[in-house]
Amino acid sequence: MRWTLKELLRNCRLALKKMSNKRDKWVKEWAGQMLITASQIQWTTDVTKSLVTAKERADKKFLKIMKKKQVSMLHKYSDAIRGNLTKILRLKLVALVTVEVHARDVIDKMLKSGCTDVASFEWLSQLRLYWDKGVYDCIISQTNTHFQYGYEYLGNSGRLVITPLTDRCYMTLTTALHLHRGGLPMGPAGTGKTETVKDLGKALGMYVIVVNCSEGLDYKSMARMYSGLAQTGAWGCFDEFNRINIEVLSVVAQQILSILSALSANLTRFVFEGRDISLVGSCGIFITMNPGYAGRTELPDNLKSMFRPISMVVPDSTLIAEIILFAEGFSNCKLLAKKVYTLYSLAVQQLSKQDHYDFGLRALTSLLRYAGCKRRLHPDLSDEEVRGKPM
């Protein structure tokens, strides 16, 4: 399977080079996962060339040309989304637009900061995908870390809207993997802790298994999960990890330590819970926590030291709403996103507190996806009228 995906990615990338002006046709011919990865490889190559030329000639116009191309391509994709598409093709386009919008924002950020060097932090801090001809493989780089693409088939799934907070979280998690440590995103509910780990897994072609932790988990069941992760090379994301009883956490700390120590020593086999098992170097362990909830356990210090923490603050809901609306085919996204966010903010402030009221990010994204369905059902109506129907 991995070899097949590797060949598909190579061919998809070559097809993109030949059909750079016919992207609508290219999108129809290839699988969603390969499309996004090939598109990101091409974007990294193009931006790198623009930065090198900009430095040589001391002129920012090459980045501006790159931004114009990106904006033009996004408008073509957005127009295509409004058309009569199959369900699979629409899923592919929406995921591709979500990633390409972030690519446009990165170019914009570099233009504003006056970045004209491939060695500048603004560029190095991005998740960059390269096709390395020397090793005949896709390499993902961020800051001083480098990873091989996992080639795990993940299907035609959606992608997360990437905000500056997501970028910072990616940087922390990739550094944690590079240092053979775990990642620990923590923050209130609805800030995208688990989704960020899952999306990083998609970007790196890794299979992410999410486990919802509870008081009922014992050290034996945890050991079975960790043994499976070590032998398959998959990532494990343990949601609400601090729900587990303190007695179990003490044993779990030793289990995690034995895996991370084996990874640091670059071993291919190691002894885990008295059994000699194989170890695949790509495996990763992530835990998420919501420290504010009552009844949660404080993590022991020996467990905390194995994880690199990242605080997930309240996300930029307006930016997320804007990108979702754009990916759903709306044109005046900035103004519409502001109006939707203002309505939700007022609802939180003005309405009484009820258990069944939810005006968080999950409810907001659900509403916007539903508005996208209405947009396609009523193409003759204006954006304002379409947005008003679901609200």
Features:
391 residues; alpha/beta; Methane Monooxygenase Hydroxylase, Chain G, domain 1; Rossmann fold; Helicase, Ruva Protein, domain 3; 3 domains; three-stranded antiparallel β-sheet; three-stranded parallel β-sheet; 15 helices; 56% helix; globular
What is the strand and helix layout of this fold?
Layout: H1 2-18, H2 23-29, H3 32-57, H4 61-82, H5 87-113, H6 121-124, E1 128-132, E2 137-142, E3 145-148, H7 164-178, E4 182-186, H8 193-203, E5 208-212, H9 219-232, E6 235-239, H10 246-264, E7 269-272, E8 275-278, E9 284-287, H11 301-304, E10 307-311, H12 317-327, H13 333-350, H14 361-377, H15 383-388
Parallel strand pairs: 4-10, 5-6, 6-9
Antiparallel strand pairs: 1-2, 2-3, 7-8
Helix pairs in contact: 1-3, 3-4, 3-5, 4-5, 5-12, 9-10, 12-13, 12-14
| Sheet with the most strands: spatial strand order | 1-2-3
> Main sheet?
3 strands, antiparallel
CATH H level, superfamily name of the largest domain: P-loop containing nucleotide triphosphate hydrolases
Task: Determine the number of helices (DSSP H or I, runs of at least 4 residues).
Answer: 15
Q: Give, in order, the helices and strands.
A: HHHHHHEEEHEHEHEHEEEHEHHHH
Give the overall shape: globular
Overall pLDDT score: 85
Number of strands: 10
Distance from N terminus to C terminus (CA atoms, Å) equals 44 Å
Query: What is the CATH architecture descriptor of the largest domain?
Result: 3-Layer(aba) Sandwich
Proportion of β residues?
Answer: 5-15%
Could you name the CATH class of the largest domain? Alpha Beta
- Secondary structural class: alpha/beta
Rg estimate, integer Å: 22 Å
Low-confidence stretches: none
CATH topology of the largest domain: Rossmann fold
GO molecular function, one term: dynein light intermediate chain binding
Protein name: Dynein heavy chain hydrolytic ATP-binding dynein motor region domain-containing protein
Main location: cytoplasm
InterPro entries: AAA_6, DHC, Dynein_AAA1S, P-loop_NTPase
